[in-house]
Amino acid sequence: MTCYDRRDLGLLLLRLGTGGVLAAHGAQKLFGWFGGHGLEGTGQFMESVGYAPGKASATAAGLAEAGGGTLLALGLATPAAGAAAAGAMAGASAVHVPNGFFAMSGGYEHAASLGLAAAGLAITGPGRLSLDHALGHTVDRGWMVPVALGTTAAVTAVVVGMRNKRLRRQEEGEQEALFEE
């Protein structure tokens, strides 16, 4: 008989809470559920904050959040799920950084907390109360952790870097337009 310990119960609660919040945010983006704006509205917002094309960016963020969150909650493919969610939250944090840390001021606190929790789960693993454990960790191998996190970090750095470059060009264009007037 398997005896679950405090660590397994704690990881289950952390996975359910973090994964549930991420999945709900992803569903807002993808389907407009829970007061969200769906792909069209989220795509327009993504475009307005420098992520282009907006609809593709909304789809990628929504899938990373909804898919990564659902998989985290289930404890399935935990390295990939945690990495995907952490990458999406890094992209969200980049949008909120100019507003400071605290969420009440529009800061990156919430996104960073979710991203760090997801990355921590990717590294720690899901515990024994998970589908990964029930399936013999076939999609939760040790080598998958650095591969998933490294790949996600590289892709996220490129995407956020392109966004920042796009915003700088836009700002320079606006300044040039002011000088021409």
Automatic annotation (TrEMBL):
Entries under InterPro entries matching the protein = DoxX (IPR032808), DoxX-like_oxidoreductase (IPR051907)
Q: Does the keyword Acyltransferase apply?
A: no
Q: Where in the cell is it found?
A: Cell membrane
Identify one Pfam family in the record: DoxX
Q: Does the keyword Membrane apply?
A: yes
> What UniProt keywords are attached to this protein's entry?
Cell membrane, Membrane, Transmembrane, Transmembrane helix
Q: How does it sit in the membrane?
A: Multi-pass membrane protein
GO terms under cellular component: plasma membrane
Where does the chain cross the membrane?
143-162
For this protein, the record's PANTHER family field holds: INNER MEMBRANE PROTEIN YPHA-RELATED, OXIDOREDUCTASE CATD-RELATED
Q: Spell out the family assignment given in the record's similarity comment.
A: Belongs to the DoxX family.
Name assigned to this protein: DoxX family membrane protein
According to its UniProt entry, this protein's organism is Streptomyces asoensis
